[in-house]
Amino acid sequence: MTKLRIPWGRKSSTDPSTNELDAEVKKQNRQSFSGLRSLINWDTETPMEQNQSTTSAPNGSNNKVQEVSQLISLAKKIGAEAEKLEAYLKDNGLPDPSFGVDAPGDFPKLSEEAQRSRLEIVHATKELGDLVRGPRENVRWGVWSFLDTLSLQVVNNYGIAKLVPLDKSIALAELQTKTTLDPVNLARILRHSMTNHVFCEPTPGFIAHTASSRLLAQDGPLQDWVGFNSEDIFPAAASVLSAIKTHPEATSLTRTGFNVAFDTVDKEPMFATFGKDPVRAKRMGGAMASLTGGEGYEVQHFVDSYDLSEIDQKAGVLVDIGGSHGFVCTDLAKKWKNMKFVVQDLAKTVDSAPKPISDDESVAERVELQAHDFFQEQPVKNADVYFFRWIMHNYSTPYAIKLLKNLVPALKPGARVVINDHCLQEPGTENPWDEKLMRSMDMVMLCLLNAQERTEDEFRELFRAADERFVFKGASRSPGCRMSVIEAVWNPEPVEVEEM
Ligand SMILES: C[S@@+](CC[C@H](N)C(=O)[O-])C[C@H]1O[C@@H](n2cnc3c(N)ncnc32)[C@H](O)[C@@H]1O
């Protein structure tokens, strides 16, 4: 497996002096700018040095130098990277980025270098925009981002995108006849959406599609994504404050923002609510598929990078706990031809899995589905690997510890416990886009389940709290993947085991 040691940045001092604190604050202030560096590997200058770098005086003399402000430095960076990106698109016959209705739904796949330019532009434009808006405006208008969710929520719920023709505009008055949404609300929702390039008004009173609104008309998983986020997570988010004020420990699955929002406090966890509502459950499933099928979450990262050769050689066993319909194991079984797999999930998930689990007979005969509640003791004894993918982040620490404890009676010496989840890095060391995404996911886990994304140290502590006989081996991540592999080995007679 390609082991990318997760870079751990500075460690905070336990008793920093005021000067140290000042220095730390200054450093952090610089980090909003420097976040990019972790990804794009700018030259060796510090951001401060970059901001203060000098240029020759206009007359060409090197004697007189001028400071380049952060403003200009960012603007130049954006210009330079945009030129590189455009050249790449032209050289490869790829379309120019556009908001137009016919523009591709996704930015084209790029070379590593062109992708770096793209990300630099994404981050530097945000940085530059924030800089020129200024702190007060950033806070004042930043807090209004929930209104973007509101307008998308209404557009999506009323299916307005499907009412607008793809090839021409439609008079607002005519559109009003096609929906039960009242005229004033339809107009204001559309016009608010337009501020985010969702729909446009090419001539006053006529509505047409942009590429984003077209996707909202055509892309089922994206509709699910917007529906789940705006109708389930958004109300839950608005109730988190109430939930944590009333239950500050914030660990219970039935005392979350979601429970407050949907009046299920101390009654049932979110999963049970969805279990009773097939439409909502399907929407959440589609939304998850839309996220986890996307860039940086492909199962192939794990399949390609995690080394099971030792286990395959001895025809060992991997148990995928909460493995849904077994799509990870069927992919693993195509690569590792000798070992066996047990996919465990709740009975109704197992019942709804396709049978046979794969058309490939040599795969199907080695992948078994088993109904098992992971809050009960693990029934498959002496397996070589126990695997949790997208499971631990659904649970607060007491629950997560329980999941690990439930393995203990089944474990043989050397058994691996492998978690495939986000692993949070120190603030400012992740590329800013990934950091935003992972920290947003962390907030979503709070809203819905009082759960959390974890750092490597927090995973280490989970294993330690579950049983001292777990030997934590660390976290690793393959290039291009947002998910990490976090691993511990069962060692009933503790000896020193080297960390990865
Ligand atoms: C977020 S999904 C992860 C699925 C899969 N591991 C993946 O990588 O996409 C969580 C899975 O855990 C299952 N699950 C939830 N509660 C469970 C329980 N108590 N016991 C077993 N499986 C459970 C769900 O049915 C679902 O398939």
Q: Give the strand tally.
A: 12
Unreliable residue runs: 1-61
Strand percentage: 5-15%
Gyration radius over CA: 26 Å
State the end-to-end distance.
Answer: 11 Å
Hetero groups: S-adenosylmethionine
How many distinct helices? 23
What is the residue-averaged pLDDT?
Answer: 88
The global form is globular
The main sheet comes to: 8 strands, mixed
What would you call the structural class? alpha/beta
Helical proportion, percent range: 40-55%
Summarize the structure in words.
- The protein is α/β, with parallel strands linked by helices.
- Helices cover 49% and strands 11% of the residues.
- It has 23 helices and 12 strands.
- It has helices spanning 18-40, 47-51, 70-91, 112-133, 135-142, 145-157, 160-163, 172-177, 183-194, 211-218, 220-238, 240-246, 257-261, 270-275, 278-292, 299-305, 309-313, 327-335, 347-351, 361-364, 397-405, 432-449, 456-466, and strands at residues 54-56, 65-67, 170-171, 206-207, 317-321, 340-345, 367-371, 385-389, 416-424, 454-455, 470-476, 483-490.
- The strands form 3 sheets. Strands 5, 6, 7, 8, 9, 10, 11 and 12 form an 8-stranded mixed β-sheet that branches.
- Strand 8 (385-389), helix 21 (397-405) and strand 9 (416-424) form a beta-alpha-beta unit.
- Helix 1 (18-40) packs across helix 4, helix 6 packs across helix 11 (220-238) and helix 21 (397-405) crosses helix 23 (456-466).
- It is globular, with a radius of gyration of 26 Å.
- The model is unreliable at 1-61 (pLDDT under 50).
Short characterization:
49% of the residues lie in helices and 11% in strands. It is α/β, with parallel strands linked by helices and 500 residues long.
